[in-house]
C-alpha cells in the first residue's frame, strides 16, 4: 500500500466528512495474493488456541493472537507496526502520534450463529493509561461474501452504515463514545467470517472520557 499525495488527501477528506462518525471504507488496497496467503493461515474453528467469549453478545467470536500467526500473517502485522503506516494513518485521520497495538485484535473469525452486538470499545490502553484508543483498522478476508449470510459490519447507533465483509475490504474508523459498531446479525450457514484487526493509540487527551471497558448497546438500552 503506497498511495500518492492526492489519494491520501482524498481519503482524509472522506474520513473527516463521513457520518455518523469519521470512517473510511477502501477496497483492494492490499495485494490480493498476500491476503489470500494470510487467510489460508487461519486455524480451523476448533483449534484450541482461539480465544472465545461466553457472553451471548459476542457469541461465536474467535480471536487469535501472535501465538497463532503464520509467516504471512506475522509479516502483515509487522507492516502495520512500521513508522510508514503510522505516518499514513496520521495524515488520513489527523490524529498523531499513533502507536499500533493488537491487544484484542489480531485474527478474528466468526462462524455459523456467531455475532458481535453493537458496542463502543474500551477507551484507555489496558497496560499504559497514558494512551487513548483512537483508531480501529479492519481488513476482511472473505471472497464472494453475500449480505444474506449475515455478519455485515454496522456503523452507528442506528445502523446508519452497512459494510459487507468482502475480501480485501478495509475499514478505518475513529473510536469514541459514539462510535457504535458491530455485526449483530448472526452468521447464517456454514461460512467463516475472517478478518484482521489492528488498533491505534495516541496520547490521552485532557478531554478523554473516564476509562471504561466495552459498552454494549444492548446493555445501554441505546436501541
List the keywords:
single chain; 223 residues; Jelly Rolls; 5-stranded antiparallel beta sheet; 5 helices; 12 strands; 30% strand
Detailed description of the structure:
With 223 residues, the chain is of the alpha+beta class. The protein has one domain: q2cbj1_9rhob like domain (Jelly Rolls), CATH 2.60.120. The protein is 21% helix and 30% strand. It has five helices and twelve strands. The chain has a seven-stranded antiparallel β-sheet with strand order 1-9-6-11-4-3-2. Strand 2 and strand 3 form a beta hairpin. Helix 2 crosses helix 3. The longest helix has 13 residues. The termini are far apart.
What's the topology here?
Blueprint: H1 5-17, E1 23-27, H2 32-40, E2 51-52, E3 61-64, H3 71-80, H4 83-93, E4 99-110, E5 116-120, E6 131-140, E7 153-155, E8 161-163, E9 169-174, E10 181-183, E11 193-203, E12 215-216, H5 217-220
Helix pairs in contact: 1-4, 2-3
Amino acid at each position: 500500500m503506497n498511495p500518492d499525495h492526492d489519494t491520501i488527501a482524498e481519503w482524509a477528506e472522506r474520513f473527516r466528512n463521513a457520518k455518523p462518525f469519521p470512517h473510511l471504507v477502501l477496497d483492494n488496497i492490499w495485494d490480493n495474493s498476500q491476503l489470500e496467503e494470510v487467510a489460508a493461515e487461519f486455524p480451523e474453528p476448533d483449534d484450541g488456541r482461539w480465544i472465545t467469549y461466553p457472553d451471548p453478545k459476542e457469541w461465536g467470536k474467535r480471536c487469535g493472537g501472535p501465538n497463532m500467526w503464520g509467516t504471512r500473517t506475522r509479516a502483515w502485522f509487522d507492516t502495520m507496526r512500521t513508522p510508514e503506516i503510522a505516518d499514513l494513518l496520521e495524515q488520513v485521520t489527523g490524529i498523531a502520534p499513533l502507536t499500533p497495538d493488537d491487544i484484542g485484535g489480531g485474527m478474528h473469525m466468526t462462524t455459523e450463529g456467531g455475532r458481535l452486538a453493537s458496542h463502543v470499545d474500551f477507551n484507555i490502553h489496558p497496560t499504559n493509561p497514558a494512551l487513548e484508543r483512537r483508531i480501529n483498522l479492519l481488513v476482511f478476508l472473505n471472497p464472494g461474501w453475500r449480505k444474506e449470510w449475515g455478519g455485515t459490519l454496522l456503523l452507528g447507533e442506528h445502523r446508519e452504515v452497512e459494510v459487507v465483509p468482502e475480501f480485501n475490504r478495509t475499514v478505518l474508523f475513529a473510536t469514541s463514545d459514539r462510535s457504535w459498531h458491530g455485526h449483530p446479525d448472526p452468521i447464517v450457514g456454514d461460512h467463516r467470517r475472517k478478518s484482521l484487526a489492528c488498533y491505534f493509540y495516541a496520547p490521552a487527551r485532557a478531554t478523554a472520557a473516564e476509562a471504561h471497558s466495552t459498552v454494549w448497546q444492548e446493555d445501554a438500552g441505546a436501541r
